Amino acid sequence: MTYAHDIIIKPIISEQSMDQIADKKYTFEVKKSANKIEIKKAVEEIFGVKVESVNTLNMLGKMKRMGRNEGRRPSWKKAIVKLTPDSKTIEFFDGMA
């Protein structure tokens, strides 16, 4: 059994994600194997909000070099969660917008 805090890894704080807060869209880094239904249940459980939809993106890790050696940062999954219009906002993001 997976717990909600295992699915939601951390929030993504960027210029684009801060602009989407006005539309009640919040961006999170999530577990790579999580699907949209699991992400929706986890966000509703952790923050006590109603989720309308979830969009996911698989982000490819960036190529990095150190001298002659090349490597790749790990790939990760991003989820953009849209809340229902009658739902309350997520308090964590309120002070940042």
Q: How would you describe what is shown here?
A:
By secondary structure, the chain is α+β, with helices and mostly antiparallel strands. It has a single domain (4-85), classed as RRM (RNA recognition motif) domain (Alpha-Beta Plaits, 2-Layer Sandwich), CATH 3.30.70.330. It is 26% helix and 36% strand. A 4-stranded antiparallel beta sheet has the order 1-2-6-3. A two-stranded antiparallel ribbon has the order 4-5. A hairpin with a 2-residue loop joins strand 4 and strand 5. The longest helix has 12 residues, at 36-47. The model has no long low-confidence stretch (mean pLDDT 93).
Describe how the helices and strands are arranged:
Elements: H1 4-7, E1 8-11, H2 15-19, E2 25-30, H3 36-47, E3 51-59, E4 63-66, E5 69-72, E6 76-83, H4 91-94
Antiparallel strand pairs: 1-2, 2-6, 3-6, 4-5
Average pLDDT, rounded to a whole number, is 93
The count of β-strands is: 6
Largest sheet: 4 strands, antiparallel
The N- to C-terminal Cα distance equals: 35 Å
Whole-number count of domains: 1
Low-pLDDT residue spans: none
Number of helices: 4
Lateral strand order in the biggest sheet: 1-2-6-3
Which CATH architecture? Answer: 2-Layer Sandwich
Return the structural class: alpha+beta
